[in-house]
Amino acid sequence: FDNISLTPDSIGAFSNIDTTNILGYGGKYRGGFGTPFDLQDLAEKASLNPSLNINYITHVRIVDINGNGTHSDSLAAPAGPNPIYDPSPSFGSAGFDLDAVAVMHFYQQDFEANVPLPFGSLILLSLMLINI
Fold first, then answer.
1. Minimal CB count within 10 Å: which of 17, 18, 25, 71?
2. What phi, psi does 85 have (nearest 5°)?
3. pTM of the model
4. What confidence tens digit (pLDDT) does each residue in 1-20 have?
């Protein structure tokens, strides 16, 4: 997912961050609130990369970064890339804490009603029916 950080300068360990200045970061809000990421946001990227099928995503990678400005956002020039600032250093805290991952819109595949039986199942069923 693309991300944008417009936080202009570093902030202290227990300072607050203006959440309207960041986009595309998990943990954007205080504890107890989720940060949604919609796979439909990747639809344009899927057209650019034919190996990306947004209807068949089975894994997600979550990356924790240090918010001291050494990492940059994905905003293109001339507006970016910008350094990413988050309360840092984080004493008494490990930083980003992930509690859960949820699916917002999932693809329901139509399954065939006829499922092939494993080899020998019909023989076993026949033997059971004739009580052998």
1. 18
2. -115, 140
3. 0.63
4. 888 999 888 887 777 888 88
